[in-house]
Amino acid sequence: MKKSHIQTEVDAWYLYAILSEKEEDPIIANVFSQMSEIEKSHAVEFAKKMSLTFDQISKPSWRAKALNRIGKIFGYDYVLGALMDTEKSLSDTVMRQKENRKIQLSGNEDSHVKILRSILENEERVNGTQLSRFEKRHRSVGGNAIRAAVLGGNDGLVSNFSLVMGIAGATEGQSGVLLAGSAGLLAGALSMALGEWISVKSSQELYENQMELEMEELETNPEGEKKELKLIYMSKGIPEAQAIEIVEELMKDKIQAHQVLVKEELGINSEELQGSAMEAALSSFFLFGIGAVIPVLPFMFTDGIQAIVLSSVFSSIGLFLIGAAITLFTGKNVWYSGFRQVFFGLAAAAVTFGIGKLIGFSLAG
Known about the structure:
Blueprint: H1 3-22, H2 26-49, H3 54-57, H4 62-74, H5 77-100, H6 111-121, H7 128-140, H8 145-171, H9 176-220, H10 222-235, H11 240-250, H12 254-264, H13 277-293, H14 304-330, H15 334-364
Helix pairs in contact: 1-2, 1-4, 2-6, 4-5, 8-9, 8-13, 8-14, 8-15, 9-10, 9-12, 9-13, 10-11, 14-15
């Protein structure tokens, strides 16, 4: 048993308690409260095995505090996302260790997400909409904006750092590097922005088409849609008689019925369609650009070996910070994750620098 494992449990206890306090829906809040108690009990039992007192283990880490601050600014769905990423990372690690040791899997390695669902399904007051909402949040938490910011900056930094070092290797770090680095920044950022715009726009168009089709089905075959809704609610654990009552009430308002069908049957949250493709493109452009500008900065005020060294130092710092930020989702050690990111980034840059040197020698010869 490692002390870091206890800290992971303490952080989860702390964050689930915060989620419970901030959640407006009392059913979902109760789920988070119960999960907090489960995590607390794990932490206490682990501490006993290491002869540690409650006071010695009860303080949340910087990671948990940082996630709480992020939740205050961006909303607590991001905190739930990070928690679920951590749970998945831990369960994957446990399964790999068991497989390596030839230990049979018990099926409980990913039990925390299953526990969340089980708590909901056994709540007497739970309804299909609440369960759908909770599950929707679990499906969407892996792709949140904070993760996109970190990965977008990482893409910009690594790709442009490698490009800059390749050109620097071929030109000994002279003025051409600044031009190439600036071009790489703009080209990469524009490409990322266009890709994001196409992704968001195409998804919106697909969802809008599915929603129109669902409305046509509702108008032409309302009895069939009633049966579908009844089966959906029954699959959520709602008794048939209660499901029929819910469906009959919903079908009195065609717009409301359509909204529920879109969410329950298609898994589409209509609020997501309100997102701007242009806003997503601009965000992607700037996130990539922030990372990509770091290795170019030294070449704006100097050149040669000095600029190459400064670019490597600045980029290494940026890479370490990105690696540290990634631990918000993985729960891994900050130093390990940070230096791992630095190692791979420098390795990629070293390869392109070496290739640039070879090309420079060939051109000079």
